[in-house]
Amino acid sequence: MSTTALIWILVAVVAVLAIVLVAGIVLARRRRISLAEKEKAERKPKGGGYQTGGGISLAPGGTPAPPAHPAGERTEVDGQPGVGDDASVPRDSKRRGIVDVTLPDEQAPAATRTEPVTEPVPAQQEPATAPVPAQRPPAAEPVTAPVTAPVVVPEPVVEAEEIEPTSGRLERLRGRLARSRSTFGQGLLGLLGGGDLDEESWTDVEDTLLLADLGAATTAEIVEKLRGEIVTRGVRNPEQARALLREVLVEALHPAMPRAVRALPHGDPANGGKPAVVLVVGVNGTGKTTTTGKLARVLVADGRTVLLGAADTFRAAAAEQLATWGSRVGAEVVRGNEGADPAAVAFDAVKRGVVAGVDTVLVDTAGRLHTKTGLMDELGKVKRVVEKQAEVDEVLLVLDATTGQNGLTQARVFSEVVDVTGIVLTKLDGTAKGGIVFQVQRELGVPVKLVGLGEGPDDLAPFEPGAFVDALLG
């Protein structure tokens, strides 16, 4: 074979290889999904706040079967239990036990009230028969004095504040999720709309979801759903990618969960219907007392009568704080002495609510660490004692959204003790990790019913999955 023929054969082979290489590159580029940002003629107005036209949903009292949730391991810690916001050991720890709480005797208060009547009538009545006229007037004065009249001290009359209507409340709370939106929503949209979606891009999406506290399981589900739907639906532009992301996130929040607060009475109180009973529980510093006061404002604005039970008897300012909330909305407050038995105070509050014919009794309990088994057992006893007087319709667990993963551990233990029926996430405006909402619902199977988006008295809002995702994405 001549040299010229060999040269032509080599040239032909090189040409074929070049053609195959170019064809492979072209096909690979065509398979990639490009989500590059395009110039938009119109831009949506800024704000992207948490918006909804409805108010907080209320439902009649009742005890439907609580949703099943996985049982977590109980953390045991030796030592004395710590209570209150400022103390680690109860002031009456030496006296407190786990024995059954003695219910208040209905006739005991009557006996204590009659004792002062016998004091103003000493043995001076015997000399009253003596014919000495000068001593008769002073002897008659203590006998006729109205000693038993001022037994019940009336509450001071305070003009109730004007309460904002609950309808459309979230529209007035726009922009409160700015920190979560900038980290969570804008980060995801930047990744999905920033270019070709290769493996590195999907890894960045996973990292963004994990940093927002969605948890490993929820993150894996969302990423898998996004990857599959993008291919199936043929998503080719950022607008379609954003719509798909919203759909997947809303679905992960389980919008079908019942989110109405069961705070309406069992029938008409005027005809013997008992009030709805709501227990507010949680660890120290999450905002239980504030949440109780804000929920009372919501109920009063809805035309309901409310009674507040100050069962946090260990934190010095708890009863005073709740009394302030009560005076602002015109609600009666039942409280005990500092260090009193919280179960007895809660029982008295519910009993008073039944007698007064109110619609709802809100019981604020003492903050307790979930690792303290003694106090957790005490909380369970509070619920059992209250149920001897009336049915407990709602147990709201207040979680601080800024605590992240630790909030999940707290929620698991509280759910085991008192069958939590709803979650209230406070301080959601102060965290960049709005994804805690996803993880709480997934881990416990308990719906998030209310969210706190500020320090104002009317900054308690209902949780709506669609509105929440819209606020995160902007």
UniProtKB/TrEMBL annotation:
It is an enzyme of class 3 (hydrolase). Residues 47-56 have a biased composition (Gly residues). It holds the Pfam family SRP54_N. Residues 88-98 have a biased composition (Basic and acidic residues). Its EC number is 3.6.5.4. The keyword Plastid does not apply. Residues 447-460 form the SRP54-type proteins GTP-binding domain. Residues 38-141 are annotated as: Disordered. Signal peptide: none annotated. It comes from the Bacteria. One of its GO terms (biological process) is SRP-dependent cotranslational protein targeting to membrane. Keywords: Cell membrane, Cytoplasm, GTP-binding, Hydrolase, Membrane, Nucleotide-binding, Receptor, Transmembrane, Transmembrane helix. The chain crosses the membrane at residues 6-28. It is found in: Cell membrane; Cytoplasm. Part of the signal recognition particle protein translocation system, which is composed of SRP and FtsY. Involved in targeting and insertion of nascent membrane proteins into the cytoplasmic membrane. Acts as a receptor for the complex formed by the signal recognition particle (SRP) and the ribosome-nascent chain (RNC). Belongs to the GTP-binding SRP family. FtsY subfamily. This is Signal recognition particle receptor FtsY. It comes from Solihabitans fulvus.
